[in-house]
């Protein structure tokens, strides 16, 4: 497995990473419009020695892209952090600000793509270009035992990062996949976006069911 062969790549991209021209142009446009926003590749948020790795899709415009902390400031964060607090993967109070004092417990949150994509839709090449940071994040955290993919893109890029065949591990909500050659179990959930909850694709109970499965694996 390639998991431990990526020491040359930093865990977080440089804040001036220019590897994806479309995303750089988009964030520089926002920088001019909203200089008070973060508008840069969003670093992971972690506790020491996390056993749970949560992978989102990409920063939300008024969420992580504005605040600089994954899932902080938009609806997806409201549901994610509430659920993580309930299941003991976070401590403190989530107030949608990076200075709210919230800390993670036994958990790490990152995104498959670290820069905000237009319409929340990164392209295939952008997902591929940012994948080394996902792999280096995993390699730097050998304590990880459970991986939660929020949505199909996070699921697929993680499998690709590990050089595993997607067809062998199909995405399904509350799916659980033991990954051969690793000590990791991959759990799937529909993304906790406002769109998915508004349309009823994902309910709070469905999201909690996934965390119940994760807690059975890492009590
Ligand atoms: S998405 Fe990732 S690889 Fe692309 S510019 Fe942003 S940090 Fe760099």
Automatic annotation (TrEMBL):
Domain Uracil-DNA glycosylase-like: 43-211
Keywords noted in UniProt: 4Fe-4S, DNA damage, DNA repair, Hydrolase, Iron, Iron-sulfur, Metal-binding
Gene3D superfamilies, A to Z: Uracil-DNA glycosylase-like domain (3.40.470.10)
GO BP annotations listed: base-excision repair
GO MF, any single term: 4 iron, 4 sulfur cluster binding
Pfam families registered for this protein in UniProt: UDG (PF03167)
Domain of life from the UniProt record: Bacteria
Similarity comment text for this entry: Belongs to the uracil-DNA glycosylase (UDG) superfamily. Type 5 (UDGb) family.
Classification via PANTHER family: TYPE-5 URACIL-DNA GLYCOSYLASE (PTHR33693:SF3)
UniProt-recorded name of the protein: Type-5 uracil-DNA glycosylase
Natural source organism: Roseibium alexandrii (strain DSM 17067 / NCIMB 14079 / DFL-11) (Labrenzia alexandrii)
């Amino acid at each position: 497995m390639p998991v431990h062969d990526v020491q040359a790549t930093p865990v977080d991209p440089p804040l001036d990473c220019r590897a994806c021209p479309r995303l750089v142009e988009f964030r520089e446009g926002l920088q001019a419009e909203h200089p008070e926003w973060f508008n840069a590749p969003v670093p992971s948020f972690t506790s020491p020695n996390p056993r749970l790795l949560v992978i989102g899709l990409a920063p939300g415009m008024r969420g992580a892209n504005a605040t600089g902390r994954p899932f902080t400031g938009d609806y997806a964060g409201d549901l994610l952090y509430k659920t993580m607090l309930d299941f003991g993967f976070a401590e403190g109070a989530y107030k949608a600000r990076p200075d709210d004092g919230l800390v993670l417990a036994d958990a790490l949150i990152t995104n498959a793509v670290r820069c905000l994509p237009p319409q929340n839709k990164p392209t295939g090449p952008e997902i591929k270009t940012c994948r080394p940071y996902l792999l280096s994040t995993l390699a730097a955290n050998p304590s990880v035992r459970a991986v939660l993919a929020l949505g199909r893109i996070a699921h697929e890029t993680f499998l690709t990062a590990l050089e595993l065949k997607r067809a062998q591990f199909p995405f399904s909500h509350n799916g659980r996949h033991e990954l051969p050659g690793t000590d990791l179990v991959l759990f799937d959930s529909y993304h906790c976006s406002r769109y998915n909850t508004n349309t009823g694709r994902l309910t709070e109970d469905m999201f909690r069911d996934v965390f119940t499965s994760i807690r059975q694996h890492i009590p």
